[in-house]
Amino acid sequence: MTARPVTPLWIFTAPGIPIIKGKFDQCAGSRWAGSPVIRDKNRPGRAFLYIGWIRQSSEEMRVMSKSTRTKAVARYVAAPLGILLSGVLVLFASQAAFSAQTSTQSNTWSTGTINLTNDHEGQAVFAVDKLAPNTGESQEVVVKYTGDYPSDIRMFATSPVEPTGALARNITLNIQRGTGTGASFTADQNARWTGTLAEFDAIGAYANGVLGYQTPGSVDKTFRISYNFAPTGDTSGLMGQHTGVTFTWAAETIAAS
């Protein structure tokens, strides 16, 4: 008789108790996968449940021997177990790898400082009351720069009082930049500004400052400032007038080239 294979399914001899898993054929007296034939002569007509359908059997039942079942279990367990062991070996191999590294010392960043002062801070250079025509005066202001950077220093006006009034237009300023003071004063070359107080009042920011100079480091500069009040023509409109200004210097660092 020609054997007809049956789909591999679980067999149960009682509800919930699996016995074997494998292929069975319907040819009496044959063997499957080398396992011995077990004849079920004492229970003819016993119903064996294949998942999905029921088969009535009064013939011989072929089952796998205990050793065959063990081989089947080993076959299904071997692959996952091998994968697990391989992962463990790779993990330990990774942990045991050689390594090396190198570092610099700690890197830090800090900034320097600049400072600008003058010897009249908090004081007026001129404080003239009852200004009379054809009078004038001269004073010196020493500006001191200290700093860690090359800088550009300029002079300009701040806080003007009545900058466009008649009095401001009739006071003339003469400012020289140099070194030393008093009899030791030496004017720098091409470092003079002359104009009316009204004109100086219009120089109201560092960007258009005058008598600028650049220094690579700490330096002192003297500014000799003179004024002269010599109105002409009808001076009646100058009586009882008031004007003023603050002399200011500022330093800005020079961008590195």
Question: How many helices in DSSP terms?
Answer: 3
Strand order of the largest sheet: 7-8-13-10-11
CATH architecture of the largest domain: Sandwich
Percent of residues in helices = 10-25%
What are the segments in which pLDDT stays under 50 over at least 5 consecutive residues? 1-41, 44-66
Let me know the number of strands.
14
Number of domains: 2
SSE ordering: EEEEEEHEEEHEEHEEE
Percent strand: 35-45%
CATH topology of the largest domain: Immunoglobulin-like
> What structural class should be given to the helix and strand makeup?
alpha+beta
Envelope shape: elongated
Features:
257 residues; alpha+beta; Immunoglobulin-like; 2 domains; five-stranded antiparallel β-sheet; four-stranded antiparallel β-sheet; 3 helices; 14 strands; disordered N terminus
